[in-house]
Predict the structure.
Amino acid sequence: MKEKTFAVLGLGSFGMSVADELMEHGAEVLVVDKNERLIEENAGRFTKALIADLTDEEEILQLGLGNMDAVIVCMSHNLEASIMCVMVAKESGVHKVIAKAETKRNCEILKKIGADQIVSPEHESGVRMAIRLVFRDIIQFFDLTSDLDIVEIEPHKDWCGKTLRELNLESRFQIHVIACRKGEKVQMITGGETMIRSGEPLLIVTSKENLEKLER
């Protein structure tokens, strides 16, 4: 199977961590930054490392982004560079362009010029922390869509010792239990006879609105 290829534009801490993780999963990764010293220090770390002014359309075109499976634009501090990179990548035929943004306004701008996905790590980490503080039983929280989340929760005390069929959680709380965690292992749940046990967190699919019903 052909290895997937990615371009990471901007080697700040976020861009570096994304590029490292892609390499860990066997992808081919092109990293680009205008900082010559930074590129030279990390040249052997990635598949290819190039120096380029990411506000210059011609220099971006020379990167050959059209051959990439996805392009990740990581210069949230530099809106001009982010806009130029997103536009050139989409015009070059890149199917998926992901851009990092710091503000809501910048998110809107990058979406309008063609970014397929926007990430805002600072905002997302803040949301996760707030949700864990408000909902005491939540262990982990992951966005699926704007409406749905995957949440890992401790089972309520009155759930333990009962089966999913007895609890009827989907009807009562509009949540769908998909798995439970037993130590380091995650076991998928496929039937209503699964017994809920204390100390075995549940992975559920639900909405933020329905999390409030669980708390009550």
Residues 124-215 form a domain with the Alpha-Beta Plaits fold (CATH 3.30.70.1450). The mean pLDDT is 86.
